[in-house]
Specification:
The complex is a heterodimer of chains A (475) and B (251). Chain A is α+β, with helices and mostly antiparallel strands and 475 residues long. Chain A is 27% helix and 23% strand. Chain A has 15 helices and 19 strands. An 8-stranded antiparallel sheet of chain A has the order 15-12-14-13-17-18-16-19. Chain A has a 5-stranded antiparallel sheet with strand order 5-6-10-8-9. In chain A, strands 1-2-4-3 form a 4-stranded mixed sheet, covered by helices on one side. In chain A, strand 1 and strand 2 form a beta hairpin. In chain B, helix 1 packs across helix 7 and helix 3 packs parallel to helix 5. Classes of the chains: A alpha+beta (475), B alpha/beta (251). Chains A and B meet through strand 1, strand 2, helix 12 and helix 15 of A and helix 5 and helix 7 of B. Chain A: It comes from Streptomyces graminofaciens.
C-alpha cells in the first residue's frame, strides 16, 4: 500500500470574518486524528509560535489566526460518525459544519440544539466559542448540549472530556487554547418539519422593545430583535421582533399541505409540488463582489436600508411559515457578504449586560444612535442562564450585537468608551467577535480568567496552542 | 498584536529622537501601544525622549543604533526582536545635510546618502526579515516629497530619499501576502528641529499631523501616505512638469 501523503502545508495570510488585521501562518489540513496528532507535535517543535485550530473562519476577529506559526484547518476532519436516532445524539468530527449536520439530521427529524446566524460554523468552533443562538433564553449555549468531546492536548494525547470537569469548562468557550477539539457527541432536538412558525411584530422604541421581550419571550423557543440603531429621538431603539418555534406537521397541513403516505417518495412528492416536510432547502444569491469601494455603506445608504427594513416588517403577524434557513441564517444566502465593507473590513461589537442593568443598555443604545454608527445588522436578544465555561460569553441579561465598518473615523476610541460602560455594568464582550478590546479590561469582564490562565500553564507549559487573540489579550 | 484598527501594542522606533517619531509614539501610546523601543545613538536626548514616553505610561527602552554602522544592525536589532513581537517598526532616522556645503564636500554628501539610504536598506531588510518570521507587523518608512522629484535646492537629500522611497516600495511588494505591511509616508515640509531656521515651504505641516496620518494609514493598511494629503495631487503635477519649467520653479 502506498504511504499516505502528508497533509499539505503552505504559508498564507489569514484574517477573521471581519477582514481586519491579516497575519500569515503555515496552514496544515489534517484529515485524520493521527494527522492532527502529528500536526500538533510539529507545532510544539516549531519553536515559540505554536498552532491553533481553525474551522470555517467565521469568528470575526483574530481567534483563528496565529501569526508566524501554524494554523490547523479542521475542515478536513468532516465525518459524521454515528447518529443515534432513538437517543437523539450525533457523534461527529470537529470539522463537520452545522450545515452538514442539518442536511444529515433533518430527514431523521432532528435538529442541532443551537445554531448561530450562520450554518457555516464547525462543531469544534461551536464548542470553542461556546456559541449561542436565538434560543439561548431556553436552551443555553452550545456546550450545554455536548455530552462528551475528544480533545487533543499539547502533549499529543487525545482525551475524552465530559461536562462537569475543569478541562471541559476551560474548553467550552476557551477559544481553542486548551487543545484541538477533534470530535464531539452532541444531543439533538427532535423536530417534525423543516419549517418554522414565526411571529413578527414591531416595537416603536427601546422601552417598548424591552417590555415586549421581557413580558413574552418565555412563550417562544426562538426569539430575536433586529434593532434600528440609526433611528434617533423618540424612535431610538425601534425594532422588529421575530420569534417562533419549529412548525409541527399539523401547521403545514393547516397551511394546505397534502403529502399523506406518498410523502416519503420524494419524486411523487415533488410532482405534487409538496416535498417532504423534513426536506432541508436553502437558497443562495450571487456572492458579494471581491472589490467594494470604501464608504459604500455610509449613514445614508444604511439609514435608507434600515428605514425600508423597518417599514417592510408587518406591525404584527403570527404563524407565518418560514424555511429554517430563512429564519435562522439569512446571511448565508449571500456568500462572502463580509466583503461589502470594503478593504478596511468591519468589526462586530457584541456585549451583554445583566438584568437590572437596563440603564446601561439604554445609555449605550443612545450613544450609538447619537453617534450615527452605520450599522444595519444590529441584533438584540435576551440571554437565559449562563453555562459553566470559564470564558463562555453568555450570562443572564441583554445582549446587543452590531456590525460597524472599521474605517469609521474615531471608532476605536468610541468602542473603548462603550467597553468601559459595559465593564462598569458587570457585563462583557464576546471574544469570538472581538478584534480590539483593551487587554486591561478582560479580567473584569471574565472573572475566571486567572483560572483559565493557570490551567493553560499547567496543561500547555510550552504554549503549543496560541493564537493572535491569545497574544493580543494575554490569554 | 495589532488590533482591528491596525494600532500596534509594541513599537520600535529607529531614530528615536525624531520629532515625527515621538509625535507618532505619543499618539499610539494614547491608544494601545504599551511597549516602545527607542533606537538611536546613545545621547541625553534619547534618554529624555524615553523618559517622556515612560511618563505617558509606556514601558520604554532605549537601545544603541547607528545608521552609519550597518554591520551592527543584524545583531543589535535582532536582540530587540528576540525579546518579543514588534507590531510596528517606524524607520524615522535621516539627516537633511547642508546642500551648499555638501556640494563642495563630497564626503559630507556621502554621509547624507549613507545615513538616509544605505543605513535604511540595511536596517529595513533586517527588520523585514524579523517581521516576516513573526508573520505580522507594519514597517512604516518616513520618506519625503523631496524624493518624488529632486530639486535644485536639496537634491542630495532628495536623491537619498528617492532611493529610500523606491527601496521601501519594492520591499512592500516583496512582502505582500506575508502578513507584513510596508507603508511609505511622504511628508512635505514639517516644522521640526531638522527644518528649524529654514524658509517654510507651502503646505507646511507639523509632526502631530504626520502622526495622525500615520495612524489613519495603519487603519486603512495604506501603502503610501502623503502629508498633507493635498501633496499627492501637487506632486503628481510637478512630477510631470517639463525639466525646463521645473528648474525655474521657486522652490
Amino acid at each position: 500500500m502506498p504511504a499516505p501523503t502528508p497533509p499539505s502545508t503552505r504559508t498564507v495570510p489569514l484574517t477573521g470574518w471581519g477582514r481586519t488585521a491579516p497575519t500569515a501562518a503555515r496552514l496544515i489540513r489534517p484529515r485524520t486524528y493521527e494527522e492532527a496528532t502529528d500536526a500538533v507535535r510539529a507545532c510544539g517543535a516549531l519553536g515559540a509560535r505554536g498552532g491553533i485550530a481553525r474551522g470555517l473562519g467565521r469568528a470575526y476577529g483574530d481567534a483563528a489566526q496565529n501569526a508566524g506559526g501554524a494554523v490547523l484547518d479542521m475542515t478536513g476532519l468532516d465525518r459524521v460518525r454515528t447518529v443515534d436516532a432513538d437517543a437523539g445524539t450525533v457523534h461527529c468530527d470537529a470539522g463537520v459544519s452545522l450545515h452538514r449536520l442539518m442536511e444529515v439530521l433533518l430527514p431523521l427529524g432532528r435538529f442541532v440544539p443551537v445554531t448561530p446566524g450562520t450554518r457555516q460554523v464547525t462543531v469544534g468552533g461551536a464548542i470553542a466559542a461556546d456559541i449561542h443562538g436565538k434560543n439561548h433564553h431556553v436552551s443555553g449555549s452550545f456546550a450545554r448540549h455536548v455530552l462528551s468531546l475528544e480533545l487533543l492536548t499539547a502533549d499529543g494525547e487525545i482525551h475524552t472530556v465530559r461536562p462537569g470537569t475543569p478541562l471541559f469548562d476551560a474548553t467550552a468557550g476557551g477559544m481553542g487554547l486548551t487543545g484541538v477539539i477533534l470530535g464531539a457527541t452532541v444531543r439533538l432536538l427532535p423536530v417534525e418539519t423543516a419549517w418554522m412558525s414565526v411571529d413578527t411584530e414591531r416595537a416603536t422604541d427601546l422601552d417598548d422593545l424591552l417590555a415586549r421581550l421581557a413580558a413574552t419571550d418565555h412563550y417562544y423557543r426562538y426569539s430575536v430583535a433586529w434593532i434600528d440603531l440609526l433611528a434617533r429621538g423618540a424612535s431610538t431603539g425601534r425594532a422588529v421582533l421575530t420569534r417562533g418555534d419549529h412548525a409541527p406537521r399539523e401547521a403545514l397541513r393547516t397551511a394546505g399541505w397534502a403529502w399523506g403516505t406518498r410523502a416519503r417518495g420524494a419524486r411523487s412528492a415533488e410532482r405534487d409540488g409538496h416535498p417532504s416536510p423534513l426536506e432541508f432547502r436553502t437558497s443562495r444569491l450571487p456572492a458579494a463582489p471581491s472589490f467594494v469601494p470604501e464608504g459604500l455603506l455610509g449613514r445614508t445608504t444604511v439609514g435608507l436600508f434600515n428605514e425600508l427594513w423597518y417599514r417592510r416588517a408587518p406591525r404584527s403577524r403570527t404563524g407565518e411559515l418560514q424555511r429554517l434557513a430563512t429564519f435562522f441564517h439569512p446571511l448565508d444566502g449571500v456568500p462572502h457578504w463580509n466583503r461589502i465593507y470594503g478593504r478596511s473590513g468591519f468589526v462586530q461589537y457584541q456585549f451583554v449586560v445583566g438584568y437590572g442593568r437596563e440603564e446601561a443598555l439604554r445609555r449605550i443604545v443612545d450613544r450609538i444612535s447619537t453617534r450615527r454608527c452605520p450599522s444595519f445588522l444590529a441584533v438584540l436578544k435576551r440571554f437565559g442562564e449562563g453555562d459553566a465555561g470559564w470564558l463562555s460569553f453568555p450570562m443572564p441579561g441583554w445582549t446587543l450585537a452590531l456590525d460597524i465598518p472599521a474605517g469609521l473615523p474615531g471608532l476605536d476610541a468610541f468602542l473603548d468608551e462603550l467597553d468601559e460602560e459595559v465593564a462598569a455594568a458587570g457585563g462583557r464582550v464576546y471574544l469570538a467577535k472581538d478584534a480590539r478590546l483593551r487587554p486591561e479590561l478582560l479580567a473584569a469582564m471574565y472573572p475566571r480568567l486567572d483560572e483559565f490562565r493557570e490551567l493553560r500553564r499547567e496543561l500547555d507549559p510550552r504554549a503549543v496552542f496560541v493564537s493572535d487573540l491569545a497574544r493580543r489579550l494575554s490569554l | 498584536m495589532k488590533d482591528a484598527f491596525g494600532t500596534p501594542q509594541s513599537l520600535l522606533v529607529l531614530g528615536g529622537t525624531s520629532d515625527i517619531a515621538l509625535a507618532t509614539a505619543r499618539r499610539l501610546i494614547a491608544r494601545r501601544t504599551r511597549t516602545v523601543w527607542l533606537a538611536g545613538r546613545p545621547s541625553p536626548e534619547l534618554e529624555a525622549a524615553a523618559a517622556h514616553l515612560r511618563g505617558l505610561g509606556a514601558d520604554t527602552h532605549t537601545v544603541a543604533f547607528d545608521a552609519l554602522a550597518p554591520e551592527s544592525h543584524e545583531a543589535g536589532l535582532g536582540k530587540i526582536f528576540a525579546e518579543g513581537d514588534i507590531d510596528m517598526v517606524l524607520l524615522a532616522f535621516g539627516v537633511l545635510g547642508d546642500q551648499a556645503g555638501d556640494e563642495r564636500d563630497p564626503l559630507a554628501a556621502t554621509r547624507v546618502a549613507q545615513t538616509n539610504y544605505t543605513g535604511a536598506v540595511s536596517a529595513g531588510l533586517v527588520c523585514a526579515r524579523a517581521l516576516q518570521a513573526q508573520g505580522h507587523g507594519s514597517l512604516v518608512v518616513l520618506s519625503s516629497v523631496a524624493g518624488e522629484r529632486a530639486r535644485r535646492s536639496n537634491f542630495i537629500y532628495g536623491s537619498s530619499k528617492a532611493g529610500l522611497d523606491a527601496f521601501a516600495q519594492g520591499l512592500g511588494d516583496a512582502l505582500h501576502g506575508t502578513g507584513v505591511h510596508v507603508m511609505v509616508v511622504r511628508p512635505g515640509f514639517v516644522r521640526t528641529r531638522m527644518t528649524a531656521g529654514l524658509p517654510e515651504a507651502p503646505l507646511a505641516t507639523t509632526p502631530e499631523a504626520v502622526a495622525t496620518a500615520i495612524e489613519l494609514g495603519l487603519r486603512r493598511r495604506s501603502e503610501t501616505v502623503w502629508v498633507p494629503g493635498a501633496l499627492r495631487l501637487v506632486m503628481s503635477v510637478l512630477r510631470h512638469a517639463p525639466r525646463s519649467v521645473f528648474r525655474r520653479l521657486p522652490m
